[in-house]
Amino acid sequence: MVMDRSVVGPRSRVEGSIVGRHSAVGEGALLIGSVLGNDVTVGRGAVLINAKVWPHRSVGDGVKLENFALT
């Protein structure tokens, strides 16, 4: 589910995940079973699997988070 005013980049996949408001998912990123708070930025090629990212945080390009909470 992608909330309003959020952007998902080309070639990105969002499966079983929630992308909060005002968030951006970079090109080629993969989100599986993850939850992003509001105003979160996920970099290009990042991989989030069963990850939780609190509001107002950023995940860099190419970063992989699995079973992790970024608070």
List keywords for this structure.
71 residues; mainly beta; UDP N-Acetylglucosamine Acyltransferase, domain 1; four-stranded parallel β-sheet; 12 strands; globular
Account of the 3D structure:
This protein is mainly β and 71 residues long. The strands form three sheets. The chain has a four-stranded parallel β-sheet, with no helix packed on it. Strands 2-5-8-11 form a four-stranded parallel β-sheet, with no helix packed on it. It has a four-stranded parallel β-sheet with strand order 3-6-9-12, with no helix packed on it. It has a single domain, classed as Hexapeptide repeat proteins (UDP N-Acetylglucosamine Acyltransferase, domain 1, 3 Solenoid), CATH 2.160.10.10. The mean pLDDT is 98. 0% of the residues lie in helices and 39% in strands. It is built from no helices and twelve strands. The chain has strands spanning 7-8, 13-15, 18-19, 24-25, 30-32, 35-36, 41-42, 47-49, 52-53, 58-59, 64-66, 69-70.
